[in-house]
Amino acid sequence: MPSFLLSNILFLDIETVPQYPAYNELPDDWKSLWSHKASYLIRNKEEETVESIYNRAGIYAEFGKVICISCGVISGNNDDKKLVIKSFYGNDEKIILYQFCEMINKWAIDNSKYLCAHNGKEFDFPYLCRRLIINSLPIPSLLQIAGRKPWEVNHLDTLELWKFGDFKSYTSLNLLAHTLGIPTPKDDIDGSMVWEVYWKENNIDRIVTYCQKDVITVTQVFLRMNSESLIKPLNVDIKQ
Prior knowledge:
Elements: E1 9-18, H1 28-41, E2 64-75, E3 82-89, H2 93-107, E4 114-117, H3 124-134, E5 155-157, H4 158-163, H5 173-179, H6 194-199, H7 204-225, E6 236-239
Parallel strand pairs: 1-4, 3-6, 4-5
Antiparallel strand pairs: 1-2, 2-3
Helix pairs in contact: 5-7
């Protein structure tokens, strides 16, 4: 096991959506900017248009917004380990980001704390930083990487850990969990459906549940990769 304590790791996952329900609702200046971006995404894809591909806009921090951040912290040891989960969610991104930052600033009072997410170094962590800047909010020290050496950045990434230096392919969290024999309770929606559930169904609770399941899975994957016993389902405590 690495030198850090399990209780010093905050496992997280974020859910994002396009800032507008559909392409035709974009202001004209944003339509132009999205059309330019989308032209690269639909290259050699004759069946796609800038309008049809707008549902993917949420994965780009310039065109999307955060609607849910779910976090998990481990307590206890061995078979008695517990995972406590707290989510920040809603329609007001600035409030979500502010509450999340307030929490990790209180939690990460020294440099012994870590953040962990699947593909976090390429998606979750930079996305949060970009949206914080856009919302005129300060970036918490634990997310800040500017001016720091790689070994000074307390970010863990289960995708990176699984690659073992091999950068040829992407392994989804669902595939990795299945490969490691970890149950994945995603029986409702997947990432590609989040924009529709949010903008068409207006069902944020369904998205929060999906996000929390991801946190549970990434926690279990990390434990499995470090030869630790998994957390029992009854030991998962979801705070309201």
